[in-house]
Known about the structure:
Blueprint: H1 16-20, E1 28-30, H2 33-42, E2 46-51, H3 56-66, H4 69-78, E3 80-85, H5 90-104, E4 111-115, E5 121-125, H6 139-152, H7 154-171, H8 183-194, H9 213-226, H10 229-244, E6 258-259, E7 267-268, E8 271-272, H11 273-290, H12 293-309, E9 320-321, E10 324-325, E11 328-329, H13 337-344, H14 349-355, H15 377-384, H16 388-406, E12 414-415, E13 418-419, H17 420-436, H18 440-460, E14 466-467, H19 479-496, H20 499-516, H21 549-564, H22 567-579, H23 581-586, H24 592-602, E15 606-611, H25 617-627, E16 634-639, H26 644-650, E17 665-670, H27 681-697
Parallel strand pairs: 1-3, 2-3, 15-16
Antiparallel strand pairs: 2-4, 4-5, 6-7, 8-9, 9-12, 10-11, 13-14, 15-17
Helix pairs in contact: 4-6, 5-7, 9-10, 9-11, 9-24, 11-12, 11-17, 13-14, 15-16, 17-18, 17-19, 18-19, 19-20, 19-21, 21-22, 21-24, 25-27
Amino acid sequence: MTNAGRPNRLIQEASPYLQQHAYNPVDWYPWGPEALAKARQEDRPILLSIGYSTCHWCHVMAHECFENPDIAGIMNALFVNIKVDREERPDIDDVYMNAVQMLTGRGGWPLTVFLTPDLKPFYGGTYFPPEDRGGLPGFPRLLQALAEAYRDKKANIANVAGLLDQNLQILSLTPEPGPAPRYAHLEQALDHALAYFDQDNGGFGGAPKFPPSLDLGFWARFYERTGRSEVLAKLLLTLQRMARGGIYDQLRGGFHRYTVDGVWLIPHFEKMLYDNAQLTVRYLEAYQLTGDPWYAAIARETLDYVLAEMTSPDGAFYAAQDADSEGVEGKFFVWTPAEIAQVVGSARAPLVQAAFGVTAEGNFEHGASVLHRPWSAAALGQQFALKEAQVQEILAEARQQLLTAREQRIRPHRDEKIITAWNGLMISAMAAGGQVLAEPRYAQAALRAAAFLLDQEARQGRLQRTWGGAVPAHRPAFLDDYAYFITALLDVYETDFDLRWLRAALRLTQETDKAFYDQEAGGYFSTPQDHETLLVRPKNFQDLAVPSGNSVMVHNLIRLHRLTDRPEFWERAQEILTRLQNLLLENPRALSHLAAAQEAFLAPPLAITLTGEPDHPVIRGMLAEIYHRFLPHRRLVLKTPANAAELATLIPAVRDYEQIAGQPTAFVCPGTTCLAPVQSAPALAELLDQLARQNKRG
Length: 698
């Protein structure tokens, strides 16, 4: 039976991804009691399909298979078909992605998994074509074979499912404690990563190539401690190659998901909020480390893109933009020479085409080109007999003209789901932009989004995973949502010093410990204790495209300890780090954010306490000096006459700090030593510079 022309059950769902499949002839169910009960009652295998709304290959399989009435008829006759949005239910995705990786050695989306009625996987893969193609079985043939095996070879299916279930149970275990965290382990982790570094293009390996955001964050902190110049050089090479490549949107700003080549040229065109949040912070850190305004410009353009295209009327941030427009991947973003000439004029076209790497042959499909920056302004000036300043002026004007023209095209789909975890990442990026770039727009965007999420939490009684869509979604948050949002709250606290944010961070940390912490084995589960029972209760330690909730919580616990002096925060951070030392040594690139947390754990803190009115020019000048420096282990507090009493209850150490002679004062304590207080921004700058020189000598 098919239901072509009529909506299926997914029409009632809030997820944009599920809504995309609401008119498939497949008899889709959302994950839930109805579908699972049907599978058990009828003893039918489950076809679980997991993806997300901006996934290009999810669209391809949907068009080729799920919109095909004949294939849908086979699915409906033989399986209970369940569709899951991985962004809405990362817990389900985590469990069954691990299973498919065990079966096939690789993963990705669309994720296609076949389960027994008791939810045990027995076969899986990613994309399957409608007929045998490229070494993959055609989906109809696969469906028939698996249904027949489930019916006639139950013992074989049970053996495979049992073995996978056993391995999944083992994978969910917390490692036994390893050695104590040491700097030597970080040296090993870094050297292991550098062995795989692409010396020509930055990043790691060949095609496909993903932004190594978390590695770069660890490297920045490693360089800040050690001064190893080759580490900084590799970090900057990666950032330069990415921002000059096609992975970066050369007109609007912002980064695509990855490139299908090894040189950052041809992207998979979807844009994810989490990539742009993390990469913004990496470029801001590079600006702090080098003082080069080019890195600041890339960060600014990326934040401007998010404000222009990824921000909801409520101030929260949307999840993603699609790779496709008008059903064609990349159509919105690519250009031909004729299109360039039509927009900028024939006189300027040769320069603009050269500047953005647009050629008659093209570098993409059908003679079109992905814009990139193969030449510097100086090289273009030599080529076209122009001064460098003239080239920059012409290209700035042309870039705006091209962007205006591109805005007339049919835009890619935007997933307007608001995900708490990813919003946490972008709130941190906006807060960092507001601080480092001295840009109030970014700071206000961070504060507004943080307030939105806290207000929604108050209305629902607990933190939620997702918001948005025509149908309200009420899905309790996962560990990543709590962890990333706690980080964001600490970052906005260091932006405007409103104690509301610090109170919320402490409260949510307490809730996280209660709902997610494994009191027996240590570490945090991905799901809260009152969550529905899955095949396993996942516990993720790997830092991949986004950091694991466990790594982020270690960062949070260290920061909270340095603010509050509460020993339980430090002890929990130490316990998790110790348990993960062996994993860090075995597979360091999969725990790069944890390595950055270990840098923070081992580093002497830098406690900076300012006293005075927040709008006083001296205080503003002091904050500017602090913000533009790369001080990854700072603890920054502003004590004002208005907040002094409450602040002392949250951060006891501030009781000892008062303005001197009624004037704004900065107290700086590196490690366990406090320096003489200073009362001007230049004096604070000299003190911080002196500390930096001492650290390099040390």
